[in-house]
Design a protein that fits this description.
Elements: H1 23-51, H2 56-69, H3 83-112, H4 118-121, H5 124-156, H6 169-186, H7 189-198, H8 204-209, H9 211-225, H10 231-267
Helix pairs in contact: 1-3, 2-5, 3-5, 5-6, 7-10, 9-10
């Protein structure tokens, strides 16, 4: 039965034992990695629930600053008896996802590793480290740059008439969750391109040739995730995405160049 992953590459003869996985072996391995990832997220969520109350002040700071900048009442409210508890639980779960991200990336790497050269397998530490770092950079960009601009813009409308905002903490949390996690995942683009390049699914030439289609997808993603209609905030959102795309092109170039050099050495 045909293999899903290119698990037996030239010049990697020492890996013959793990290089002959069947279709069902791959499915079993995928199931194992998914279960392990869910367990990791569950453990992270338990830790997140224990510390989530300490993060409430942290997540509300951008909103309070936006209200202060527009001379509005600096308070957030919950509108149901269970509203605050619901916030604590949801916040704890998402903190758990963030805490478990290195472990989840490690599980992803264990799944794709059998199809790689030995030297590429040794790169798993860099894979987990840079994947976590990029996710954290996405969160930081959203929290320190995108959120203040977005919230200040939205609260600015409250000064145009007699209607004043009564901000629900739960609705506010849902809003910032989309922005924070959206940017965190988008910043993983170079890691995704790295994996696809390892398996020959994309090349630098392919990425550059299809840049216009990538720009279309980036624009659509920015329009969906950005909660404001102004072009400035949308451009602020798009700039790191475009930058990450070109970083991904560079990553793909390095990966493809190294793979071709190894294949040439093996053929020689």
């Amino acid at each position: 039965m045909a293999n899903i992953l290119p698990t037996r590459l030239p010049g990697d003869s020492e890996d013959s034992a793990e290089g002959r996985m069947s279709f069902f072996d791959h499915l079993s391995e995928l199931r194992k990695r998914i279960v392990n990832s869910l367990i990791g997220i569950g453990v992270g969520a338990v830790i997140g629930l224990l510390i989530s109350k300490r993060f409430i002040q942290f997540i509300t700071t951008p909103m309070l600053k936006a209200l202060a900048a527009n001379h509005l009442d600096q308070n957030l409210y919950y509108t149901s008896p269970a509203g605050y508890i619901s916030l604590v639980i949801n916040l704890g779960i998402y903190i758990g996802i963030v805490l478990a991200m290195p472990y989840v990336l490690y599980q992803i790497w264990l799944f794709v590793a059998p199809g790689l050269y030995k030297t590429e397998k040794r790169a798993f530490t860099s894979f987990v480290t840079f994947g976590t770092l990029l996710f954290a950079c996405g969160l930081a960009f959203a929290y320190f740059i995108l959120l203040p601009r977005t919230l200040t813009f939205l609260m600015g409308f409250a000064n145009d008439g007699p209607v004043k905002p009564l901000i629900s903490i739960n609705e506010y949390f849902s809003l910032i969750l989309i922005i924070l996690l959206g940017m965190g995942l988008i910043f993983e683009m170079p890691i995704v391109i790295y994996i696809l390049s390892l398996f020959g699914l994309v090349t630098p030439k392919f990425l550059l040739k299809n840049f216009r289609y990538a720009m279309l997808l980036i624009t659509v993603a920015a329009a969906i995730i950005t909660p404001t209609p102004d072009a400035t905030t949308m451009l602020v959102f798009m700039m790191p995405m475009v930058g990450l795309y070109f970083v991904s092109v560079l990553v793909s170039y390095v990966v493809v160049r190294k793979k071709r050099a190894k294949e040439a050495a093996a053929a020689a």
